[in-house]
Amino acid sequence: MRNIIWIRRLALVGIVLCFGVVVLGAYTRLADAGLGCPDWPGCYGHFTPAGAAANITNVESAWPGLTFESRKAWIEMIHRYAATTLGFIIVLITALAYAARRERVVSLPFAAFMLAVVVMQGVLGMLTVTWLLKPLIVTGHLIGGLTTLGLLVWLWLTVRARTAVGTIASSDSQLAPQPSAAWRRAQRFAALAFAALILQILLGGWTSTNYAAMACPDLPKCQNEWVPEADYADAFVLWRGLDINYAGGVLDHPARVAIHFTHRLGAIVASCLLILAAFAAIRLGSAAVRNAALLVLAALVLQITIATAMVLKTFPLTLAAAHNAGAALLLIGIIALTRSLRPVHMPPPTAGS
Question: How much is the pLDDT for 61?
Fold first, then answer.
């Protein structure tokens, strides 16, 4: 039982840390610090930017054409340190899940998958730097971070649902009402909203990594048009080769307009589905489900407010980073809603247990 308690605690710590890593990663990218350290996992061949600063002559000779900027280097390395700490937490959760396999509260395949996602995140983090901020890789890195966050949230909610006051729940009937037509309808709306939010996050990542955020500086129109002139053919080319530095973006303005405008259209669709899912859930009358639905609505209002302020104030760095935080909060909300609408099943016994 002690292992289960520690898994729950570590999952909660992991959620908070992963949220910070996602927001800090966005800040790193938006502050143009993604190449603050052009190598990986160190910084100009040193463990810390301070080490690089103390050997600036050697650094400049080893990386000709690059200028060491201490502020950007520290932003990048703090993000790496936080991500590494998160990786250790997930390794520990996986080890504890294996140790507690007889309690059947944490699924070992789930824990192993979460660990695999974190390992892939490390690979994508390396490629983000060594492949010069390729939009496909950077967007994948963002999605990997949010996937890790989502898995930790799901784990924490599931362990909490499967344990009550330190006692492992013995049956599903204690944890979820019998499904009804209205309940199944709410589940479908939540699934659609979840899918729409994932697509919207992908579009948001593509907008950011292609430096298309400022392509539509007005609101509600874009370029003073309801349907602006845009180049969709060039906007969504996923791969353009390895020998291109994407810092600052390489797309022409019409392509960036296409990306940004598509992101805005996606926001309308995702918002409508999130609202439908929340109100369908509220009508069920369950307190837990209602609270999760209210979290979704609150996060949605916050995200729309941030997005509007970001455009009206000409995309300041703090609001742009907050926009990523809003997306993470929406993800937490829709996962909480989805979890609350599903019965809690105890996983089958592990072989040999």
Answer: 86
